[in-house]
Amino acid sequence: MELRLLILGLLCDQDLHPYEVLQILKMRQVHDYIKVNYGTLYYAFEQLEKNGWIEVKEVIQEEKRPEKKVYRITETGRSEFKKMLHKAFRTESKMFHPLYPALMNADFADADQVKAAIKEKIEKRRETVEFLRTLFQCKVSDHPYGVVMLIKNALMHSEVELAWLEEFLLGVEKGRLDRRE
Fold first, then answer.
1. Cβ atoms of residues 1 and 84 within 8 Å
2. Over the range 33-57, which residues count as b (16 or more CB within 10 Å of their CB) and which as e?
3. Above pLDDT 90, what percent of the chain?
4. Which string of b and e fits 134-157 if b means at least 16 CB within 10 Å?
5. d(Cα 102, Cα 114) in Å, to the nearest integer?
6. Whole-structure pTM value
7. Which of 85, 88, 120, 179 is positioned for an S-S bond with 107, CB 3.0–4.6 A?
8. How far apart are CA 112 and CA 115, in angstroms?
9. Sequence-distant contacts of 20-29: CB under 8 A, at least 24 apart
10. Sequence-distant (≥ 6) Cβ neighbours of residue 105 within 8 angstroms
């Protein structure tokens, strides 16, 4: 659903070729905060067209290049987009973290390897926090409120994640992985 919602949202603004949509999503670094499979983009366009939510506006044929279809959203597509958008606002999600299965079995792990891995994660998370802080400062004045709030949420989550990782590392360094502690 996320990819269709993103495509339809972009097409609400302007008519686009799928490759242009891909470039916009990558430029906006959507993959950093939304689980999106770019490999299914063209398939998503096919499905949206099949459902009547988008249509070909024009076909551009450049010399020695495959034809390029530029799409626009239909009225049905706008209606479905609104339904999907409002459903997304109501959707509850569970929190899954890739470390959870490892944490459930952490007492079997080698503490030195865990320390090294957590230190790497902490460094990457610090970089992410700094990037998001800078991005937030840049976006706050001239971007839509929803985008600003998305970045703020990602920043806050990253800050909490960093604090959690640092606390976990302290526990590992104190020998807390040992089952007997």
1. yes
2. eeebeeeebeebbeebbeeebbeee
3. 67
4. ebbeeeeeeeeeeebebbeebbee
5. 10
6. 0.77
7. 179
8. 5
9. 21/45
10. none
